[in-house]
Write a structure and sequence with these properties.
The complex is a heterodimer of chains A (about 270) and B (about 240). By secondary structure, chain A is an all-alpha fold. Chain A has nine helices and no strands. Chain A has two domains: about 1-40; about 45-265, no CATH class. The radius of gyration of chain B is 18 Å and the shape is globular. Classes of the chains: A mainly alpha (about 270), B alpha/beta (about 240).
Chain lengths: ~270, ~240
Amino acid sequence: MKSKTTNKYSESVTIQRLSEFFLTIAGLTLFSIEFIKNVFLPPYEFGEITKHMDELGVKSLPILGVTGFIIGLVLAMQSQPVLQRFGAGSFLPSMVSLSVVRELGPVITALIFAGRVSSGIGAELGSMRVTEQIDAMEVSAIEPFKFLVVTRVLACTIILPILTVYVIFIAIFGAYLAILLSTGMNFQLYVNSVVRSLQFSDIIPGIAKTFVFGFIVGIVGAYKGYNAKNGTAGVGKASTSAVVLSSLLILLMDMVLVKITVLFWG
Amino acid sequence: MVEVFDVSKVFGDYIVLDGVSFKVDNGENLVIFGRSGSGKSVLLKCIVQLMKPDAGKIFIDGEDVLSLSLKKLNELRKQIGFLFQSAALYDSMSVRENLEFPLIRNFKYTRKEIEAKVKNVLEKVSLEEAIDKMPSQLSGGMKKRIGLARTIITEPKLILYDEPTTGLDPITTKEMSNLILELQKDLNTTSLIVTHDPICAKIIASSAVVLKDGKIMYEGDINSLTTAQEPFLKNFFSR
């Protein structure tokens, strides 16, 4: 009897959570359509966009730099014995650079960026919503969607590819350090191996997908914050759920984009 | 100036406004009284279209605000000031930036004109020294006065006040109420003041509306209201 009641309860919770998830996705889609409608209309807030690019992007450089360096270093350290076991130790620079450029660099950068930026946008806009600052803008004939949402989403979309390139360079350098310490490989030789192994079909899709990831980080954070309710508890919820949802969407979208890339470029 | 006809608003099963109608003439200071949760703030938000009423019509200067396009609504909003209960100062901006923001965004003033206007409104609210402070460095009363300064800096024809004295001590309440009255006379504005503070109402109001259970239970002169014998009304002014 008790287990039947428990089952019914967990079923209803699951149904409620699923319906909440699909409602969020529907709301997010409408919010994205609103963004597209607004992005081409004047006034163009170039000042605000560059300000957010500085705040959201430039201030992410230290954490991304450390992450990129460690990824490169660890990847080289882990891969070296495995490749040597198969007699392919000389392919290490190629393997590291291809992994970092095609997948690890873009995805790890986007996930770290989501953790830092999506939650920040969610919390900032959420706090503005619950303290009536967004209402104050609206009533002053200033379109808050354009001023607060469009500028932040554009800043994220533009800055993430740049940050990804930065992380890729640092990761490749980190990998070189690991290889140098274990084999003493010459830097020129390492760079030649890396450059020879990379083709445009590796670089372009890897970087191009980060525009999509940047958009996801910005739009999810803005959506959660802009629609926050229930006071400070709502702000916390907006911030946390922005990170969870944007990370999940980044991984799902990565799966789709990798499939498309493989279809077109192999 | 403002005409509200048969406005209703429902949240779920809860009827907040039930066919509310009243009129505010040019230069009038109308106070909207009512207990907490009686729909006073909702009514103000409906007037500036921060919320859509479920039924009824609202006219400002003869314009049906519910049927205006966003562009026309924003043109109308430029002539309206709104002082929020929490003051709603932009907390990422300094006092100066808060005051400059609506001027830069909506009007074509020169830098010198903007600086003069900022200085002028800060003098009016006696907070010249707060110009470079951040909102987090201000007390509750100072925030309300800066909020008021931001509301009047665009010289609106109509000002809506949402609980302008809530959370203030009786002395600051009187100061704030007198300041609102002075500014109203200086700028010759029409005001709609939502409050449940009798001190504020007695100082500012020329007429009053009392909301109870979503309906208007009194409309008329403020002096008659303060001396009313009806128990609900009497309770407001017996404090």
